[in-house]
Amino acid sequence: MARMCLFWSSVVMGSRRYQGQPMPLHLPLPVDSKHFDRWLELFRDTARSLCSPPAAELFISRAENIARSLEMGIAVSKGVMLGIDERYVRRRL
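^ thats the sequence. predicted structure below, dont judge the formating
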């Protein structure tokens, strides 16, 4: 939780308190577009319930950009190049 607070402080407030690299932490996770969609749904609901409307929308906008970046990075790491508006869906074995 402390690491996430540092991360969001850096993302939203530019504090530079987070020094990690989120992408390598997410690459081994078995996630795809449906997971990012659900995370964003929960994130939006939480931000809107805890923050003022302008602050919530700022957090949400940043979260949407981060989700897109992570989803694309995970896809590329799996050898999948996404087209415009294309989403990553994991192959099931």
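The chain has one domain: 23-93.
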